Amino acid sequence: MGFNTMTEVQELAIPIVLEHKDVVVRSKTGSGKTAAFLVPIIQEIQGAGHTSALVIVPTRELALQVASVATKLGNTNHVRVAIVYGGASINVQMQALSRGAELVIGTPGRIIDLMERGALKIGRIKFFVLDEADLMLDMGFIDDIRQILSSAPSDRQTLLFSATMPRQIVDMARNYMKSDATRLTVGEEEDITVSTITHGYYFASGRAKFAALMAYIEKFNPKKCIIFTSTQRESEFVHRFLASNSFDAIVMHGGMSQAQRERSLHAFKQHSRFLISTNLVSRGLDIPDITDIINFDAPNEPKTYIHRVGRSARMGKDGRAFTIFGNDQKSLMHDTRAVANVEMHLIDLDISKFRDIQLPEHERWGGGRDAGRGRSFGGERRFGGERQRGFRREGRGSGDRDGHHGRSFGGDRRRFHRNSLDFRPSR
User: How far apart are CA 101 and CA 74, in angstroms?
Assistant: First the structure.
């Protein structure tokens, strides 16, 4: 696969896993965590002939990413890999499991569906992995994870991997892992963002945000770029804006079917210059040649900033992160800089030549607090206004737990300690 040397997290974690110890690993985005657990697992389970390792991830995109790496790593070892997630045929996934997949990678809802149908049996697994464990908690998957764990053998080896290490992750380690579990922090505790990323920002609201976007593109000429927005509607509108200005742009968000999302991601990997998306792609997307991350809408939570910008500067490469903060978001800028522990520089942009740039006709663009309160730019339908404050949880309707009918988690997100004895408020 072209790997010549191990990354730091691989060098430290692989021996621990091979010693059959439970481990909690905190390592920043783009540091090679996926191979850090897949390499030793594949070595240990080859030839098992039954499901021996279960890797749980929070999103379909991350499932696809991890499965891609696992398939390449397991090829020469003849380890069979099955990927299970909603939005795809459950019958096809059941067939893959029936062929004796040793390594199963999937999202919580679909895993439970398959377990309840008797198609997925985890009573003999050796490895139980939670990848992006902090996002699992944010999305409210703790009850599903507990249900899955209740069917796993007690002598399993449990591995938790995360880019950030909130208190709840430590609590989970105490409740579900062996008492001698190793906690591994790669880099300094405050070193949570890749050091090869340069961070810039600009203050703009309303129409001026589009002018700032164009000025940044003109000044830095990004080769491969993800543009993050706060809502699906804004993703669509920014996509139309860039396309109308002759940029090779692709849009991808949770409102699209799984097939559409996969086509968009494939097009971005193969040839497209810009991908416009919500937080859907802030985790798990590993495309080595991404040079720039643009936060068209600044994330409301500084932690989200860490994961967004981590899509660039993968495996030691250089990258740029640019955030457009609203004119009333100066405090958010300072909070983001403090939480991410990075130097953020005000970028000198000449937006004057783009002040009169045309937006697509017959649309309105709002964008919430920092976007001019939905000011009209000559249209009939309004885009923006309602903020997407988190992720849509996998649905529980029509026998497909990973459908599009899930509850929304974010602004009114439940408090975990109210629903789980394992999560209690700090004293």
Answer: 11
Q: Which of 179, 132, 136 is nearest to 310 (CA)?
A: 132
CA atoms lying within 13 Å on the CB side of residue 409? 18
Does 192 reside within a domain?
no
Q: What is the CA radius of gyration of the chain?
A: 22
Q: Is residue 271 part of a domain?
A: yes
- In-domain check, residue 421: no
Tokens 């249209």 locate to 379
Token pair listed for 419: 């629903």
Residue-wise pLDDT tens digits, 318-376: 788 999 999 999 999 999 888 888 889 999 999 998 888 888 754 444 443 333 333 33
Rounded Cα distance between 276 and 416, Å, is: 31
Question: Nearest CA to 334 among 298, 286, 281, 359?
Answer: 298
> How many whole angstroms from its chain centre is CA 109?
17
pLDDT in tens, 233-246: 999 999 999 999 99
Amino acid identity of 308? R
357: which 2 tokens? Answer: 């740039």
Q: Which domain holds residue 333?
A: 197-383
- One domain, residues 142 and 18: yes
CATH number at residue 204: 3.40.50.300
